[in-house]
Amino acid sequence: MASVELRNVWKIYGGKVQAVIDACWKCNDGEFFSILGPSGCGKSSTLRMIAGLEEITRGEILFDDRVVNKMPPSERNVAMVFENWALYPNLNVYENIAFPLRVRNLPEAEIDRKVKWAAEFLGLEPVLKTGVKHLSGGEMQRVSIGRAIVREPAVLIMDEPISHLDAGLRARMRDELKKQVAELGVTTLYITHDQVESMAMADRIAIMNLGRIQQVGTPLDIYYNPANEFVGGFIGEPPMNFTLCELVQEGENYFITSPSFRLQLDDICKARFLGYRGNPKLKLGVRPEDVLVSLTPMPNSFGLRVDFVEPQGDRTIISLQMNGDIFLAQVLGDLRPEVNQTVYVTFDQRHMHFFDVETGVNVLYMS
Amino acid sequence: MNATIEKYTPKLMVLPTFVILLIISLVPLIYVLGISFTDSTISKPFNDFIWFENYKKALTDEVFGDSLVNTLIFAFVVTTIQTFLGFVLAFAMQRERKLSGVLRTLALLPLFTPPVAIAMIWRLIYDPNQGMLNYYLVKWGLTNAPIAFLGDKTLAFPSIMLADIWQWTPFCFLLCLAALQSLPRDPYEAAMVDGASAWYVFKRLTLPMVAPQVIVIFLFRFLIALKVFDLIYMLTFGGPGNTTQVASFYIYRVSFKQFQTGYGGALSILVLILISVLATLLTKGRELLLKRVE
User: Fold this and answer.
1) B contacts of A84 (beta carbons < 8 Å)
2) Structural domain contains residue A341
3) Total-model pTM
4) Per the CB < 8 Å rule, is B190 touching A88?
């Protein structure tokens, strides 16, 4: 087992395309660390550099504080679960799992013991002698995990291992995978574009966009304290609402105003703004579940017209007209207003996020 | 009405090709089959119906027997060497994406060149008096006197094989290159991460993955090689003696030099049967082999 650290790592393809820009983070020994981002954000390039399949343009990658930049993949003792599993098509399940052991010239008895262990662990015993071409997606995925864990790697890298499975199987494999990795206790780098996977499985998440690391933190930290507008919008389903507003000070009181609303900040929120000297024009971000809706006026609330109502049983998603845009609210299932009705809205002020209009940085970010 | 048209349109579209194929392959076949039962000569086709006399004669014809053996030896030797060389070259070149485009074009040149021209060039190379090969052999002191490659009983056949290998190796190279470049890339990355050496990857992955295609290339080339004619015609004319006599050339000689077209027809039919049986056996053998690999 090992820790993995990236120090100012860059990947530039053909001298022009910047796939990874100045990545700095550290995954601790035994940690389940997820790299999350939309496709093309540089997460696969990052992982391929860690595995040694791709050269590092600039910067350093360290395993247990040892620089591995020039080390070939075979010496890094990393195991990888590929996006499309990359099984050896001409070999059966047993031989696929045994492959990394045979490469190391282990005695036959030990190979057999380890392969059987992995097969039992992953529930692959019934298909051990089957050619991998005849397996289902879920089985192929488990074979590729088996091949990765059988040699007890220092670092286990998984590149979108379950994104090719269908939805039901994906949910089941998510739990199973998390359990299996936890049992092994191996340092795991898990690459995905699916925020649900990252949130559910990872100890910590690094969010990437356009080649840059946006934020590194625990799932809850990232959820409740997004570093910027991208992170806020990327994490959460339904996604965070954004609208432009202005911070106004009137004597002792602070307000945020926009054409659609005027909201007085409570003491806690006001305290966070006390030292703020930046641009009073801000972008407000509120998650749908932090939008509080009532059919009758509440203190410090404002009226909005209902555009669309989406009942989902336990909850209702209401689309509201806000500054000419759509603003989503997620409320309990028994609240079902009519379309075009005016409802009264206020925000949970503990979970209001304010972003710089130009840079998108969270102006109240607590690092 | 419309349904009828729709039903027959595809068949009508194929009809011209079908008719052409019929004329150029089925008609001659029936014609040859017909004359093989007669004592025909070139000037008197379908002369005297003599049943299986020609076939009986063929089975005791030693030259024909030898020519069949020669054909099989020739086809097997050149195909084995060409497939092996083609594969080795393709394997060495497969990573050179930029270079392989140029190489592919260059490799096509011997295939574009008319076989007669190729044979002419090799005849010049082998020539005992002005030939390039003898010139260098003598110059470098490898032999004292020029060697008549094509006139020597032991050297004639290998010399023809060498020319054939030069002509046809690019064919195997191109097909092997295509086979290798169509292999999936990810298993190789997986093997890199798993720490496998290049030789181990070749042995455990590349070879088994590419084997089915290479066997097909071998069969394909083998069946073409059984029909060798042009090189023999141009280089040795079956000689010296009958040492380079192959089936197709012997049939040519019987039919168009000795004018025994009836007998030549019988020989053709026998060769046709032999090749069909051989092709079936080889294809079956391939299927069995592939099952064992799985």
Assistant:
1) 186
2) yes
3) 0.76
4) yes
